[in-house]
Design goal:
The structure is a single chain. With about 325 residues, the chain is mainly alpha-helical. Helices cover about 70% and strands about 10% of the residues. The chain is built from 6 helices and 3 strands. The protein has a 3-stranded antiparallel β-sheet with strand order 1-2-3, with no helix packed on it. Helix 1 runs antiparallel to helix 6.
């Protein structure tokens, strides 16, 4: 109350109190805040790397489908020519009628493949547009592959993985929190200054120096909990590192497997089939069976599609390896 006659002992005071954290507490809090910031940034990098992987994977699938459609359309044209050829033979040779029916069946199978690939291509292009948040009209990359690099090339980049870096940052957060909790058991000194006024007495000021003690037992429990959390995050980071090492080895094994299959198809299977194809064409010119030629045509189409598929698989596996090593 402003009426001082009500309580003669009443006084007015202004107090200021400044606490000084114990040595190391401010640095520990700064370290804790920076570690938390690193977790957020690593989480952001993880999202970027994952998005880059999804874009690569989808783009390679689009290119695979485009090349499949191109090769299927090429064989569709060949199948149409064969049907015309077989039809002309059918009037003079009974067995040519069977060959013509076989060619028509192959053409139907090719048309079905083309329809299926076109439908999948539309959905993959829509997904790619969504991932890049824009309209992708064409892709300049082709399905060209080269021999894989050495395994160690990928393993040395293991620590660039953003998820692993985030695990380490979480470990640093827990370590900084443990330090804070341990330091919180120490008392914090403080200085308190006050200015006092009382009617009919001289004003005076006071300075108090003291220590702020934590609640007994509570800080020790918090420190123990922080220590357990730090050990748990350290274990999680070590476990993820081992898992990441294994994932890189697995992906590399798939990469080398795809490359070896690519070499076999390209250097062995296709040349052999091409030679058989040429022999069959020569045989037809001498009046040979057209049915065998249609069968070889079907095998050649399947093999060329397999070559396209394995190249795309190689590139998609490479994209996963890039993601595991933190590449954008």
């Amino acid at each position: 109350p402003s009426n001082r006659s009500i309580e003669p002992m009443q006084y007015e005071a202004v107090n200021f109190k400044q606490k000084f954290p114990w040595f190391g507490k401010l640095d520990a809090r700064k370290t804790y805040t920076l570690a938390q910031k690193d977790v957020i940034m690593d989480s952001y990098d993880t999202a970027k790397v994952k998005l880059a992987e999804e874009i690569r994977m989808t783009a390679y699938t689009v290119k695979e489908l485009e090349e499949r459609i191109a090769i299927v359309n090429k064989y569709k044209s060949v199948a149409n020519q064969n049907i015309k050829l077989y039809t002309s033979y059918a009037s003079t040779q009974i067995k040519s009628h069977t060959s013509s029916m076989s060619a028509s069946l192959l053409l139907s199978k090719i048309k079905i493949r083309a329809q299926r690939y076109n439908a999948i291509l539309k959905s993959q292009k829509a997904r790619l547009n969504y991932l890049v948040q824009g309209k992708v009209r064409s892709l300049s990359d082709t399905l060209q592959i080269s021999a894989p690099k050495a395994l160690n090339t990928y393993l040395v980049k293991l620590e660039n993985n953003p998820v692993y870096r985030m695990k380490l940052s979480q470990e640093n957060v827990a370590l900084a929190n443990k330090t804070i909790q341990e330091l919180s058991t120490n008392p914090d000194p403080y200085v308190k200054m006050g200015y006092f006024h009382r009617a009919e007495f001289e004003d005076y000021a006071s300075i108090t120096v003291g220590f702020s003690y934590p609640l007994y037992g509570t800080e020790d429990l918090n420190s123990e909990a922080a220590r357990k959390e730090m050990l748990a995050t350290k274990s999680a980071s070590l476990d993820y590192r081992s898992s990441l090492y294994s994932d890189i080895e697995i992906m590399y094994a798939k990469l080398t497997e795809a490359y070896q299959i690519y070499k076999i198809i390209k250097d062995e299977s296709l040349p052999q089939l091409e030679h058989m194809f040429e022999l069959s064409q020569s045989n037809i010119q001498r009046g040979g069976d057209l049915f065998a030629y249609t069968s070889l045509l079907d095998q050649k189409l399947a093999l060329e599609e397999e070559l396209i598929s394995i190249k795309a698989e190689y590139l998609r596996t490479g994209a996963k390896l890039k993601s595991l090593t933190g590449a954008l």
